[in-house]
Description:
This protein has helices at about 5, 10-20, 25-40, 70-75, 80-90, 105-115, 155-165, and strands spanning about 50-55, 60-70, 95-100, 120-130, 130-135, 145-150. The chain has about 170 residues and is α+β, with helices and mostly antiparallel strands. The strands form 2 sheets. The chain has a 4-stranded antiparallel beta sheet with strand order 1-2-4-3. It has a two-stranded antiparallel sheet with strand order 5-6.
Amino acid sequence: MGLRQKTGLGMMDCKKALTETGGDPTAAEEWLRETKKGKMDTRTERTTGEGQICVATNDDGAVIIEVQTETDFTAKNENFVEAVEKIADIALTSDDGEIALIDDMTKFIDDLRITTGENVNYARGFKYSGGNFGKYIHHDGKRACLLQYEGDIDDTTVKGICQHIVFHD
């Protein structure tokens, strides 16, 4: 895959990175990450009022996380949504309770900051284990519910409970 496709950066940035690293695409990608990350660190004070919430589950538990960015345009971008989903999958490896930002998650956050040119941050997350889980994520991706329950309840009822919680929050 080409450096430009892989990083989402402009042709001139990729050309400069390849020149600086003697044509090595792996080194060029790392060079871009370090160079652009330094520039993005100066933007961390920008307000992040948009974002996405994601819920991920597996046999061991469930997580709900929120990643914020500056604009609605970025928050709805397919690459942003996919990255948030990957961050949620990584969060599943965390211990129960509040989820701190870990190194594997930081890479996705940094990549988003570099490719979008916006301040992106991991806002919060929580992991639950045991029982059954239901979820509802509103179409805007900004409101969601992760419900942990015991017993045998049909999926429609669980979704209805989750929707009720979201709409009355």
